[in-house]
Design brief:
CATH topology of the largest domain: Aspartate Aminotransferase, domain 2
Distance between the termini: 31 Å
CATH architecture of the largest domain: 3-Layer(aba) Sandwich
Largest sheet: 7 strands, mixed
Bound molecules: pyridoxal-5'-phosphate
Order of helices and strands: HHHEHHHEHEHEHEHEHEEHHHEEHEEEHH
Structural class: alpha/beta
CATH superfamily of the largest domain: Type I PLP-dependent aspartate aminotransferase-like (Major domain)
Organism: Camelina sativa (False flax)
Strand content: 5-15%
Protein name: 1-aminocyclopropane-1-carboxylate synthase
Catalytic activity: S-adenosyl-L-methionine = 1-aminocyclopropane-1-carboxylate + S-methyl-5'-thioadenosine + H(+)
CATH class of the largest domain: Alpha Beta
Number of helices: 17
Number of strands: 13
Pathway: Alkene biosynthesis; ethylene biosynthesis via S-adenosyl-L-methionine; ethylene from S-adenosyl-L-methionine: step 1/2
Keywords: Ethylene biosynthesis, Lyase, Pyridoxal phosphate, S-adenosyl-L-methionine
């Protein structure tokens, strides 16, 4: 008799290496947290004990403005009485160049989200299925299997799938440190470049994300110039993922690589490529509007041919062309979106500050980078995972651990804040408050004992520290029956 396990293995042998391997990169706590949420999603009334999704970088704060515009512009859709006369023109085959009005509107929008300091040529706009598709297409255009791209850490976990899975390309981490706010330094770049060389990985480019996911930071002009110079000198490509361009608020300023290359004499523009999408700035991830903007003619031509595999549907192109051409709407939307992001960010950071929880100072993106290093039993990724499990399964907040972003320092967590309503954010903060006060209660006797033992040395002050000496506290019994946060018997992490 053939066992089920053997049968499964044989089944996999019927498939390609890509299909049967795990190059999709989804075996990470980043995606496990999503599964935990999906199995038991929080709902204010129907599931008040469910997991709150704080692992999804989605901008839902201005959905009302979007819905209002759609209702006021029925002619923008070909599936309404007002737009149906265009149905046949739009529903027929459209080639991979995209509707001219779509490319023009997107180019203008990209200028606006870069404060009109640069011009974008509509003929260089290439479509893709979201930034996800854009990254893969760029990787296919620039690199062969086995080649590598340098990527500053921490970085968006999806890159492991988007750039690597089907292309066979490597990502080489550029290690950044919390001691200087995770800045991308020349030394870190040179070290990573050298490491790749020693591992026989030909480096084809550097992929940077500005504003950063997960840090929420923006790169200053000086740093951007140094990245352009570094890549130019090494004759490697620079891919700038700018999909959070319009999510800056407060004091932070977004500077596009498009602006910086104009200030660098003799810059080799053939090496510069921008990845963009409407997923974050307009809060439309479901529309799958991704853009490759390359300054390299050959890349534009090839990427356009490849875009046949991930075109934006013609009815979406038409709707987006109409929407983005409404300049008053776009201006108001971006202005309001920044205000709402700033207000939500303030609400979350004020809450965390009140609880003595640290976070990286940054004012962009749809998330913040929370510092829970003080809660780790030991400064290891095992401890980070242990703490993450508690947060997901007991506190019931799906935040994402830094290890899944390739952060090299354990104890950091990304917390998304723009994908929920105000009440849910209040509930999330209340759960964190209960969690931290329980921890403080728990650690008091430990602290007292330590103080006694060490006589004069103060170990426990405002900083929370989590002792995992008895891990079972979290698995059962840690939360009292009276705690508003009840442990879930349903959800178990899969890592
Ligand atoms: C930095 C970064 N790049 C790309 C993507 C993928 O975006 P899209 O939904 O447009 O495919 C994301 C999504 O979270 C992201 O954060």
């Amino acid at each position: 008799m053939v066992s089920i396990a053997t049968e499964k293995k044989q089944d996999l042998n019927l498939l390609s290496r890509i299909a049967s391997g795990d190059g999709h990169g989804e075996n990470s706590s980043y995606f496990d947290g999503w599964k935990a949420y999906e199995e038991n999603p929080f709902h204010q009334i129907d599931r008040p004990d469910g997991v709150i999704q704080m692992g999804l970088a989605e901008n839902q704060l201005c959905g009302d403005l979007m819905r209002k515009w759609v209702l006021e512009h029925p002619e923008a859709s070909i599936c309404t009485e007002q737009g149906v006369n265009q149905f046949s023109d739009i529903a027929i085959f459209q080639d991979y160049h995209g509707l001219p009005e779509f490319r023009q509107a997107v180019a203008k929008f990209m200028e606006k989200t870069r404060n009109n300091r640069v011009k974008f040529d509509p003929d260089r706009i290439v479509m893709s299925g979201g930034a996800t598709g854009a990254h893969e297409t760029v990787a296919f255009c620039l690199a062969n299997p086995g080649d590598g791209f340098l990527v500053p850490t921490p970085y968006y976990p999806g890159f492991d799938r988007d750039l690597r899975w089907r292309t066979g390309v490597n990502l080489v981490p550029v290690t950044c440190h919390s001691s200087d706010g995770f800045k991308i330094t020349m030394k870190a770049l040179e070290d990573a470049y050298e490491k790749a060389r020693l591992s026989n990985i030909p480096v084809k480019g550097l992929l940077m994300t500005n504003p950063s996911n997960p840090l929420g930071t923006t790169l200053d002009r000086e740093c951007l110039k140094s990245l352009v110079n570094f890549t130019n000198e090494k004759r490697i490509h620079l891919i700038a993922d700018e999909i959070y361009a319009a999510t800056t608020f407060g004091q932070s300023e977004f500077i596009s690589v498009a602006e910086v290359i104009e200030e660098i004499e003799d810059c080799n523009r053939d090496l510069i490529h921008i990845v963009y999408s409407l997923s974050k700035d307009m809060g439309l991830p479901g529309f799958r509007v991704g853009i490759i903007y390359s300054y390299n003619d050959r890349v534009v031509q090839i990427a356009r041919k490849m875009s046949s595999f991930g075109l934006v549907s013609s009815q979406t192109q038409r709707l987006i062309a109409k929407m983005l051409s409404d300049e008053d709407f776009v201006e108001e939307f971006i202005r309001e979106s920044k205000l709402r992001l700033a207000a939500r960010h303030k609400e979350l950071t004020t809450g965390l500050d009140g609880l003595g929880i640290g976070w990286l100072k940054a004012e962009a993106g749809l998330f913040l980078w929370m510092d829970l290093r003080n809660l780790l039993k030991t400064a290891t990724f095992d401890s980070e995972t242990e703490l993450w499990r508690v947060i997901v399964h007991q506190v019931k907040l799906n935040v994402s651990p830094g290890g899944s972003f390739h952060c090299h320092e354990p104890g950091w967590f990304r917390v998304c804040f723009a994908n929920m309503d105000h009440k849910t954010m209040e509930t999330a903060l209340e759960r964190i408050r209960v969690f931290t006060s329980q921890l403080e209660e728990e650690t008091k006797p430990v602290a007292a004992a330590t103080m006694m033992a060490k006589k004069k040395k103060k170990c426990w002050q405002s900083n929370l520290r989590l002792s995992f000496s008895d891990k079972r506290r979290f698995d059962d019994g840690f939360f009292s029956p009276h705690s508003p946060v009840t442990p879930s018997p349903l959800v178990r992490a899969q890592t």
